[in-house]
Amino acid sequence: MPALSCGGALLVGLAFAAPARAADLAAKPLTKAPPVAVSSWTGFYAGLGLGFRSTAADLTTTSVLEDGVPRDISDAVVSQPFDGPGLRVNPYAGFNWQVAPSWVLGVEGDVGFGNQTTILQGFRASPRAGSSTFLVDSLALKAGWDASLRGRVGYLLTPATLAYVTGGLAWQQFDVTSVCVGATCNNAVPAVISNSAIKTGWTLGGGLETALWDNWLLRADYRYADFGATPFAIARTRSGAGPTLTVDNFDTRLRTHTASVGLAYKFGAPVTGGGSNPLQAQAAVLPSWTGAYLGLGLGARATRTDLTATSETIGGFAFDLTERANNRPMDNTAFRASPYAGYLWQLAPQWAAGVEGDVGFADRTTMREGFTSVHLADSQAPGESLSIRSRWDASLRARAGYLVNPHTMLYATAGAAWQNVELTSTCTSRNCSGFFALSSPIISSSTTKMGWTLGGGLETVLWGNWLARAEYRYADYGSAGFTVARSSARPEFDPSVNTYDVAMRTHLATFAMTYRFQ
Fold first, then answer.
1. Does the first or last residue of the chain, that is N or C, have fewer Cβ atoms within 10 Å of its Cβ?
2. What is the Cα–Cα distance from 45 to 259, expressed in whole angstroms?
3. The architecture CATH gives domain 1-21+42-285
4. Which of 443, 319, 468 has its CA nearest to residue 387?
5. Are 1-21+42-285 and 286-518 the same fold in CATH?
6. pLDDT in tens, 301-356
7. Cα 286 to chain center, whole Å?
8. Helix, strand, coil: what percent of the chain each, to 5?
9. When comparing pLDDT for 184 and 517, which is higher?
10. Rounded to an integer, what distance in angstroms lies between the CA atom of residue 251 and that of residue 254?
11. Is the domain covering 286-518 a CATH 3.40.50.300 domain?
């Protein structure tokens, strides 16, 4: 879980390294001593969050029984990923205790409402059964609602800004549905089989929360959850020759990454000072937001990638893909580090505008084993695969911000974005090297796609010239075309040419530290 360990490291560092900051900061002259801002985070609160949940799931065949007799599955691909991001809305509520001037403890519960489905076209049962190549058959995993009950430990970076870690129990509802109605199903029944479960697991993460005005709190957080593995079975009967009862047993391992922005109302006294501006007492010591800055962000990149086979020819013969399972989801989630730099102009007491560029470093590959082309997909043989690798990304954006108080800015950002992507086709199976006698067992091709990005975040002053931010961005890179061509020693199979479209979109969730030059 690299996204958890590295993304959480920044939040933990904010919370526990902050007490030592005074030793490293030079004192700045003041025209007068500012009054002390007194905070009171103790009390009940309730809020609503909006964000995304990226599901990382793996379905793995454990055994296949035909009329009670185990089938040898050692010579086939037995596992497939079912990853995918989706929108999530989560009401939450909790109670905080401010146990010391800089420390806050609490308990919180939330319920997340999401509805994300990943579908493998052509698959009829567990991954071992492979693809029928027909569009009407499918194997799908749907992630529904989730919930959690957690403890929170927070450190007050300022009287109005809390960095916290959180962990506890989590629950996830999901179901797996198999549809087998194509010609190769031989009228097996039932045609549609659905398995559902609610799994208990654990969750760990952290976030940043800041007081806006009166009793309103704004937060951004990230959490990782692991729900272990759940066994399922798909059993079908059919008449005629061959086995009459086939039972596919498989495990579903499920993990999730959730990132959200939430707005909460605290009941009782406001967080600081009891006034409409929670940081009014310290406003006199703040410099202007105008100036250059640079920073480092850590977080997660959830990639939504669809690979579509647009044409296949072998020996000059073109396969008709009209009713074939020619699409494969290639989604994934990866840890991402992103240095950035920019310039802001404070145009008015509450408005700022600027420009910013960043480079994101991530490296994640999604592989579909048993799939080189549609006409070979039913073999489900080891040594046949297609993979998509998403690496670095970059953006150049404008920013427009509103100062909800002198220390905290809400901003929107948009501009141009770039994403590097690589497709690799592997064809080393007995079918490829033997019967079809194809050359070039491994072919790779890469490109950098330009697209657009849109998002927003919150940024708050910590101390001196240091700021913390939490940000979400969506990016769309359209589609990129790839061609995989192989020659064959057999004239009737020469050449073999496949073309693909790869459509890619990304969700970026980032926590960052910024240094502002003045």
1. C
2. 20
3. Beta Barrel (2.40)
4. 443
5. yes
6. 999 999 999 999 999 999 999 999 999 999 999 999 999 999 999 999 999 999 99
7. 36
8. 10, 65, 25
9. 517
10. 10
11. no
